[in-house]
Design goal:
Layout: H1 26-30, H2 39-43, H3 76-111, H4 116-143, H5 153-176, H6 188-192, H7 201-220, H8 224-227, H9 229-235, H10 238-253, H11 260-298, H12 301-304
């Protein structure tokens, strides 16, 4: 007879029987044994030795030395003397001219206030020309690398750009204040449209075109990464045209061109620009021929027939 399934172990005075568990393997009790780490990974991968530089004859040569001037800055005493001399010069000029200028402005304001606009236009015109000349001369100094020994190149480039912006702003004020001049009826159209001026339209039109050329060159600083270094250099040749146009506009259309001080204001930057540009051309030609001769001596006949890469020949900016 089959046992009653409702009968429990207690009824039969029996204890439940549990199956015996298998013993745990010894490998699981102590954990899996790890493989030893390779010695190459413990000490790191061995680096290949740096290849030695070879000279043209095949013999080992030392690393190529740095060429060109290295920025060391001016000595501290020289800087103090330069700042002191600059402060004395600026203070002397202001002390000699400011009182007379203020008295003249006060007399004009009291008798003929309508001429204040005309004087402001003339003053801002000279200011814009001086700043533009400084920007051009500073760019030429950058291209010849004459400033690298006393100033860091990024700082010099930023100053060159700031001078261009300041010249553009002074030129914009010079043209805008023509509206206040009561001698001629300058309208916004006459100021913005070239050759539409009621006074000397051809001469003033050259000045207007010069202003737009300055604006293009100044804007190129902000799109330099997009247009490329070669296009940016080529566009910088417009700076020379703007400088020539501003000089011609100031001498021919300015009412103070016959004054001795105005003559020196125009002559000084023109002479400096001609000298630096001539020096830049001679330096570029000599570097070009020197590098070409050196490459012909150091490379094989097959490579000699390859075209010479662009070296920024007659570059008005810096490399």
């Amino acid at each position: 007879m089959l046992p009653d399934p409702r009968q429990t172990a207690t009824d039969n005075d029996l204890q439940p029987v549990m199956p015996k568990l298998l013993p745990r393997p010894a490998a699981l009790q102590t954990g899996p044994a790890l493989l030893p780490r390779p010695a190459a990974l413990q000490t790191g991968p061995a680096l290949l030795p740096r290849p030695a530089l070879l000279s043209a004859s095949g013999a080992p040569a030392s690393a190529r030395p740095r060429t060109g001037p290295v920025c060391r800055g001016l000595p501290r005493p020289v800087r103090y003397v330069a700042w002191a001399v600059g402060a004395v010069v600026v203070g002397g000029v202001l002390g000699a001219t400011a009182p007379n200028a203020l008295r003249s402005i006060g007399a004009v304001a009291a008798t003929r206030p309508g001429l204040l606009g005309w004087y402001s236009v003339r003053a801002l015109g000279f200011l814009a020309y001086i700043i533009l000349a400084a920007s051009v001369l500073y760019g030429l100094l950058l291209s010849t690398k004459l400033l690298d020994a006393i100033a860091h190149r990024p700082v010099s480039f930023a100053l060159h750009k700031d001078l261009a912006i300041a010249a553009l702003l002074a030129g914009a004020l010079h043209g805008t204040l023509l509206i206040t001049d009561q001698s001629f009826n300058f309208t916004p159209r006459a100021i913005l449209v070239p050759f539409a001026s009621p006074y000397a339209p051809i001469l003033v039109g050259i000045g207007q075109i010069t202003f737009y050329a300055m604006a293009i060159v100044t804007a190129s600083f902000y799109v330099r990464r997009h247009i490329g270094q070669r296009a940016w250099r080529t566009l910088h040749y417009v700076t020379f045209l703007a400088f020539i146009g501003a000089t011609f506009h100031g001498i021919s259309a300015g009412s103070d061109s016959g004054q001795a001080w105005a003559f020196w204001i125009y002559l000084t930057p023109i002479a400096a620009a001609v000298f630096l540009l001539s020096y830049r051309i001679v330096l570029s030609v000599s570097n070009h021929f020197a590098s070409t001769s050196e490459s012909r001596r150091s490379i094989g006949p097959a490579a000699r027939r390859a075209p010479v890469a662009d070296r920024g020949f007659l570059d008005p900016t810096f490399d």
